[in-house]
Amino acid sequence: MADHYETLGVQRNASSEEIKKAYRKLARELHPDVNPSEQAQEKFKSVTHAYEVLGDEQSRRSYDSGGSEAGFGFGDIFETFFGGGGSRGPRSRAERGQDALLRVELTFEEAVFGVEKSIPVDTAVLCETCNGSCAKPGTSAQVCDICRGAGQVQTQVRSLLGSVITSSPCGSCRGYGHIIPEPCLTCRGQGRVRARRDIELKIPAGVEDGLRLQLAGSGEVGFGGGPSGDLYVDISLAPHQYFSRNGDELICELEVPLHDAVLGTMVKINSFDGEVELQVPAGSQTGDVIPIKGKGFGRLRQSGRGDLLVTIQVKIPSKLDSKQKELFRTLAGYRKADASGLVARKSGSFQGRRRG
After folding, report:
1. Looking at residues 174-190, what average pLDDT do you find?
2. What DSSP assignment string belongs to 43-69?
3. 167 close to 175: Cβ distance less than 8 angstroms
4. pLDDT in tens, 113-171
5. Whole-number Å distance between alpha carbons of 115 and 108
6. What residues form DSSP beta bridges with 153?
């Protein structure tokens, strides 16, 4: 087999950038789309294979040391004797794909009930042309003629301890045990391509802001058509104009006119379940909390829902006409005896009474 450095037309001490430039120049000249001759195609295969070996630092080091006694130190001999030098066989070309991260913003209603969403993402998908084989359709991988499919090459080294046989990854096939003479033109021998696809998300009820969901096998397809990584979905909850949240509880405030707070009343509240009726007890105070059972957030990974908590805000009239003022004076006269029992409230926040 021809020397890979000679194939690319570079010196053995060429830098990685020089090797890359040489490959790009030859690839532009020999690519089948530019030069369809059979001779050019054969040379293009050799150039591609040479760059596949020399373009990877680890593979290049292995190739450079193949069959050579140079660079073999005592540490390598030690590994050989104590388990590091045994032949491990060819490695698989198929590798697990990378995990992916997706951020999704939900409305309160979607978090209350759960939702199914179709989200477009840019990711790595299986190459449909070669179906992940990395080879041009109609062709296949061939056994490496250097390691004969073993993925490893053996080298005899003389040391203080005598002759030692050590194994290292084959520099020609990069340890795969086979080479691909004609890479797929669609994926350029990767077995995967970048594309946009729709991810179907089934988000359960009750998810909270900042929660991370894991979808096994929904990440990027691996090199060589390998298994997909996982997809992680970070949830963010958009703020709502009227509602807030405390765990599984949905919270809102209700302004109640003074006379309704005193006498009590039945009101209708617009919730995520539509209109629900709420009984405001007579004598309700600002800060009182009235629960509506089962109208809050769904309980994550559990059955049932939390409560909707309605906090009462008694609305004191700021403007009264003369007749209304007279009515309040009359009421004050009836309740004059209660005035001696008033107690100042400590300033600051306080927990409202829960009614119901």
Report:
1. 91
2. HHHHHHHHHHHHTSHHHHHHHHHTT--
3. no
4. 999 999 999 999 999 999 999 999 999 999 988 888 888 887 766 655 566 677 778 88
5. 11
6. 168
Beta bridge partners of 135: 183
**What would you measure as the largest C-alpha separation in the chain, in angstroms?**
117
| Amino acid residing at 345 | R
Phi and psi at residue 148, in whole multiples of 5°? 55, 40
Q: Residue 68 CB: number of other CB atoms within 10 A?
A: 10
**Based on C-alpha coordinates, what's the Rg of the chain?**
37
**Strand 274-280 with 265-271, pairing:** antiparallel
Query: 23 and 8 in contact (C-beta within 8 Å)?
Result: yes
Dihedral (CA of 130, 135, 138, 140) sign: negative
- DSSP conformation class of 223: G
CA separation, residue 243 to residues 108, 207, 252 (Å): 8, 16, 5
Q: 262-290, pLDDT tens digit by residue?
A: 999 999 999 999 999 999 999 999 999 99
According to DSSP, the residues that pair with 266 across neighbouring strands are: 279
> In angstroms, what CA-CA distances link 162 with 84, 86, 311?
18, 18, 87
CA angle (113 as vertex; 109, 116 as ends), nearest 5: 95
The amino acid at residue 216 is A
